[in-house]
Amino acid sequence: MEQQATVEVVVGRVGRAHGLRGDVVVEVRTDEPDERFDVGATVCIEGTRRELTVTRSRWARGSLIVAFKEVADRNGAEELRGSVLVVDVEADEEPADPEEFWDRQLRGLAVVDESGQARGTVKDILHMPAQDVLVIDVDGDEHLVPFVRQLVPTVDVAAGQIVVASIPGLLDDDAEEAR
């Protein structure tokens, strides 16, 4: 049987301890938190391959509170603080909705303007309350571009590029004021 290639994907970062029983607040870094942090699901601590098994999870005031079988008390929860949580997923796995993209699909894509001129590279994606924001590296400078159709009309993962609207100031610092 042929083994499927997998990639390691970040799904969260452990924040502060919550309560005395070892629960932690998880800063979610996945579009599928209910699946990734469902009871019985396992995650690993990045760089260690230490496995953690979810025993309970719930949302409280917009934060995900998670308990792991391997963490018995508040001290254990405090030791996890700052840990990045990862899972292995099939390399060719894609979101069900063709209009959705995972961070790992976008990082490293070439950025071109509407005329096709190379402008930079997608460095990261910030998940903000209002919308996601692309962090684009343009000659060593970071530019933040809201990930909305008006500013990013085309995403072509297969071609390895995205198109960003040609709006002065969006990908450069030398925007001329409209007169």
Automatic annotation (TrEMBL):
The keyword Cytoplasm appears for this protein: yes
Protein name from the UniProt record: Ribosome maturation factor RimM
Subcellular location: Cytoplasm
GO molecular function: ribosome binding
GO BP terms, alphabetized: ribosomal small subunit biogenesis; rRNA processing
Major subcellular site: cytoplasm
Keyword annotations of the record: Chaperone, Cytoplasm, Ribosome biogenesis, rRNA processing
PANTHER family: RIBOSOME MATURATION FACTOR RIMM (PTHR33692)
Function, as annotated: An accessory protein needed during the final step in the assembly of 30S ribosomal subunit, possibly for assembly of the head region. Essential for efficient processing of 16S rRNA. May be needed both before and after RbfA during the maturation of 16S rRNA. It has affinity for free ribosomal 30S subunits but not for 70S ribosomes.
InterPro entries (alphabetical): PRC_barrel-like_sf, PRC_RimM, RimM, RimM_N, RimM_N_sf, Transl_B-barrel_sf
UniProt entry tagged with the keyword Chaperone: yes
Domain of life: Bacteria
Domain notes: The PRC barrel domain binds ribosomal protein uS19.
SUPFAM superfamilies linked: PRC-barrel domain, Translation proteins
